[in-house]
Structure formats: C-alpha cells, structure tokens
Amino acid sequence: MAGASRPRIALALGSGSARGWAHIGVIRALEKAGIRPDMVCGTSIGALVGAAYAAGELDRLERFVLGLGMREVVGFMDVGLAGGVLKGDRLIEYFRREFADRPIEELPTPFAAVATSLTNGAEAWLRSGSTLQAVRASIALPGLFAPVRSEGRLLVDGGLVNPVPVSLARAMGADLVIAVDLASDILGRRFRADTEAPPAGAEWLRKLRENLGALMPAASADDLPMPSVVDVLASCMDIVQVRVARSRLAGEPPEVTIAPRMAHLRLLDFHRAKEAIEEGHRAVERVAHSLALLS
Questions:
Q1: pLDDT the model gives residue 87
Q2: 99, 209, 215, 254: which could form a disulfide with 179 (CB 3.0–4.6 Å)?
Q3: What is the residue-wise DSSP string for 91-149?
Q4: How far is Cα 49 from Cα 42, in angstroms, rounded to an integer?
Q5: Long-range contact set of residues 144-152: C-beta below 8 Å, sequence gap at least 24
C-alpha cells in the first residue's frame, strides 16, 4: 500500500440502525490488517459511525456505545408525533455537547453522508456544512425519527435510496471501495425469531410501549402475536433497503463487501453494542483473502 501511486481506498458504511455498531468492529479489524481508508461515507447509522471515524473520534464513540444500557437508550427517546414517533433531539443534543460539530470540509478524513429528499425522493449527498446536521438527516428513519429541514428540503434516512453508498464513494474519488452491508441476512428473520424465543431487548420494548400507549399493542397470547408498530416499521424498511441495496450493488459493485451477520439484533437494540462490534471483527476475518488483494 506504500507509495505515492497507491490506489485511494474508500469505506462505504451501510444503514441498519442498531446493527450499525458493527461498523466500529469492522474499522478496528481493518486497521489491524493495515488498511486505513483514505475517505469514508455512510448512510444512516453508517453516517454516524463514519463521521466519528472521519473526525478522529471513534475511540470516544466506542466508549459511549459500550456504556449504553436499556435505560440510557430509552432516555434518548423523546416522543413527539409531529413527523415521527421520536424527534431525535435528545440524541443529537447529547452528541453536540460531547463531540465538537465541525464542518464536513474541515474533517481530517474526507467524509460524506446520504439522505433522501422527502418531497421528491431524490438522493441527497451531504458533503459540506454541519457534520451533526448531516448525520441527523441521514439517520431520520421514516415514521420513527422526524425529518430534518435543510436548504429548503425535508430530508429523511438515506437508506431509502442508497443503503450501501458505493456510488458516493466513487464520486469522492475512490479507486477501491470496501462496502459494509448490514442487511444481507435480515429479511424474515425478525418474525421467525419471535416464534422461537422471547425477543432480545424485550424490556426496552415494554418501556417504549408504556411511553407510546396505544401505538404499541399489548402482548398477545396467540401463537403468532401481532408485531409492534416499531417492528412493522423496521421490517418495512428492511424490505426496502435490502431490495434497493441488492439492485444498486449489482450495478455499482465494490471491490470488497463485508457482511456482518446481524439479523438477531432489532431496530433499537443499541444497548447490545459489544456483540455487534465483535461480529464486525468476525465479518472482516471472513473476507481476509479479498482484503489481502488490496495490500
């Protein structure tokens, strides 16, 4: 990889809500293998982790997520039905207090995020201005987090149009792209798991149900219980993102795809960071032969 003529490597971090903590493990494992991306872009949770990496704040983010318990996750849930079940203000205000909000253009490592225009469905590439504002727009999961106003647009989660942003990485000047796809194994798993065992994180679901009242149906004694509104929203987004990702990755293939196996994690299982990060490490090990070709 040494030498002035070496190819420029980009890391494209995909969407996936709580599964996104696996990105931290992926980055750590890549660094251990001697691969340090020249640029990073991300969609949704990939934008959040990517921004921390680009700003040199990944260590702090990792400490923060490893300290998250269900109580802390619930504490970030500011219920407000205008635009989304959750406003997202508490989470962003926390990051504003704990992490300096630098302009994207001034980050040590080139960075960009993907969002979606709610008004016309256009893909928005956020490559300048407030880093936190770009992240907030990229993670605005429809129906869950309220949209973000930006330059006359209403922006929502970029996973609707570009779940694994290889195209953005190419536009940033990458010669080689390492893509992280968090949704390769998720379709249908959410409901099959429910019929086999109590869902992981059931306690936070109970607490969220208390906060949202009628929006979260009570548990059923039926063999096939009615899913919560959160599970319905998450599963619909899973379907959209998997279908879009498969289509786009077929037309815009990266040099290496890393696919953590994360189907056991639910939409808001942010308190399960340790296992997500560990799976990120394992996913890199599974493609070590492909990564060796980049060095």
A1: 47
A2: 254
A3: HHHHHHHHS---BGGGSSS-EEEEEEETTT--EEEE-SSBHHHHHHHHT--TEEE--EE
A4: 8
A5: 144/84, 144/85, 144/86, 144/230, 144/233, 144/267, 145/84, 145/86, 145/87, 145/88, 146/80, 146/82, 146/83, 146/84, 146/86, 146/87, 146/88, 147/83, 147/84, 147/118, 148/115, 150/115, 150/124, 150/126
Distance CA 141, CA 80 (A): 14
Q: Is 261 left (phi over 0), alpha (psi -120 to 50) or beta?
A: beta
Element (H, E) at 246: helix 229-251
- Which pLDDT value is given to residue 98? 72
Listed residue (134, 71, 82, 125) closest to 103, CA to CA: 134
Residues 260-288 have pLDDT tens digits of 998 888 877 888 999 999 999 999 999 99
Closest CA to 41 of 94, 131, 111, 102: 111
Has residue 74 got a pLDDT over 90?
no
- Between these two residues, 69 and 48, which has the higher pLDDT value? 48
Q: Which helix (H) or strand (E) holds 242?
A: helix 229-251
C-alpha 41/C-alpha 78 separation (Å) is: 28
Q: Identify the band that residue 201 occupies on the pLDDT scale cut at 50, 70 and 90.
A: very low
Q: Do 199 and 277 meet the contact criterion of CB atoms below 8 Å apart?
A: no
Query: Taking residues 196-210, what's their average pLDDT?
Result: 50
Would you please indicate which residues are annotated as catalytic (active-site) residues?
44, 157
